[in-house]
Write a structure and sequence with these properties.
alpha+beta; elongated; binds adenosine-5'-triphosphate
Length: 136
């Protein structure tokens, strides 16, 4: 099966993921994209979500909090604000962030920065999705 190198790095942690994979499914500001080996060159911005990585018959997830993705026919480079492999995600921290963001959004007070709270909620939801945790 053909492969493409996926490299994910963050300013804080440096390299978070570096491996030959078969397919990457990401959400960009323009919608969902499936990247296969020999993909056309592309530069886009990502939104916070659980990326899906296909290797052989298996699929794993990787959290990305948004950032930039450059694609060339043999390499995908993602520079993200934050990115985490499933084992590195602290579920209790993500649940706490989820609840904080929900409480802020429910207050509907003019002091609340709605965009910021919605972005925090999206990050928390995506981290929990990577861990297979669903909030009500
Ligand atoms: P919090 O409010 O809990 O800090 P956040 O979404 O605001 O969450 P980020 O700004 O996305 O956090 O990330 C800041 C740093 O903390 C990054 O290095 C990120 O990898 C790490 N981080 C944030 N939440 C978690 C988590 N639940 N598990 C593991 N690492 C996390």
């Amino acid at each position: 099966m053909a492969t493409i190198l996926l490299e994910v790095a963050t300013p804080d942690k440096g390299e978070v993921f570096s491996k030959e994979i078969n397919m990457l499914i990401v959400r960009s500001i323009c919608g969902e994209l499936g990247i296969l080996p020999k993909h056309a060159r592309l530069l886009t911005e990502l939104i916070p979500h659980a990326m899906r990585i296909k290797e052989g018959s298996g699929e794993t997830k990787l959290f990305v909090s948004g950032g930039f993705m450059e694609v060339t026919p043999d390499k995908i480079t993602i520079l993200a604000d934050a990115a985490e492999n499933p084992d590195d995600i602290d579920v209790e921290r993500a649940k706490a962030a989820y609840q904080r963001a929900e409480e802020r959004l429910n207050k509907k007070s003019p002091e609340i920065d709605i965009d910021r709270a919605e972005a925090a909620l999206a990050r928390a939801k995506a981290r929990l999705l990577v861990k297979g945790v669903h909030m009500g």
